[in-house]
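Example record for the data management plan.
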Amino acid sequence: MTGRAMEGLPLDGFDYEAILGQCCEMPVGYVTLPVGIAGPLVLDGMSYYLPMATTEGCLVASTNRGCKAISMSGGAESVVHQDAMTRAPVVSLPSIRRAADLKFFVEDPANFDTLAAVFNRSSRFGRLQGIHCSLAGRNVYLRFSCRTGDAMGMNMVSKGVQNVLEYLWGDFPDMHVISISGNYCSDKKSAAVNWIEGRGKSVVCGATIKEEVVEKVLKTTVSALIELNTAKNLVGSAVAGSLGGFNAHASNIVSAIFIATGQDPAQNVESSQCLTLFERDGKDLYVSVSMPCIEVGTVGGGTQLAAQAACLELLGVKGAGLETPGSNSRRLASIIAGAVLAGELSLMSALASGQLVKSHMKYNRSSRDIAKAAV
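Corresponding structural encoding:
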């Protein structure tokens, strides 16, 4: 059909039955990516080996070094302090007063139980947590927040939202639904609402790194790391006008684990929003990452494919949590935050010690390319 050769794109050896009708339309083959393993990462008293799908040399090695520093210092700890996927439809009313009436009705605590019951009919696991409305002229943006069990949950939330909108027509027959998504969610875009309010799993992860580990493993000093973090991740990002980008390379680690475990790669945009802090803890270093919108699931989508399921199995979070709905997806979010912590620690150390270029010349540049350059 195209008249172009596709010999390099593999076709055979893939289970297409696993993707038809749920993962990909019109498949013509599949793309292979190398998967490396970093770790063990000691997190919350357990050890994890991190599957990372990447074509960037040095990334797995660097993350592995960060894991080593964390493990040698006693491990990291994490907390998932919020768990709620969001969807925000936009509707319009004939007047700003009617728009305000809808906002007051939806946000009235006396109506929440009824709206929650309507919403929750859509799924066994979807549970409405809250609705926050914003007005723009006669338009109303309704941001629904919902627990989604171990699924990432976008479809689940959308179904619940549709149920509520149909119910609201009984009291607001003049309401016009413009779109099931009005970008106030905000999905697959960097947005202040996610940075402030959170979306998906909101996780904080931290560890104390011993001074001798900083010097022997990371080849730098506590003072140098704190100075660099302030100048780069805090002030430098502020000068750049960053939104949620107060980190060194959180997106690198998030993307690699997302792809390996069958997450939606596009949600790397908001999931990589991260604030990295380096502080002195006596003579040691305390490092933390705060990530308010990690959007992951362990069921549905690409998580059911064989290779991705194997990576989830490696982490011990494949499928639905047997004891508590949502426990596996929350654990995956914590593991990702822990991996980001390791990645931040190692890259910042490479920058502080002036080893970044040397490391990338060794691991991120093919000897064949170097030979060509020499000629």
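Summary line stored alongside the record: The chain is about 40% helix and 25% strand.
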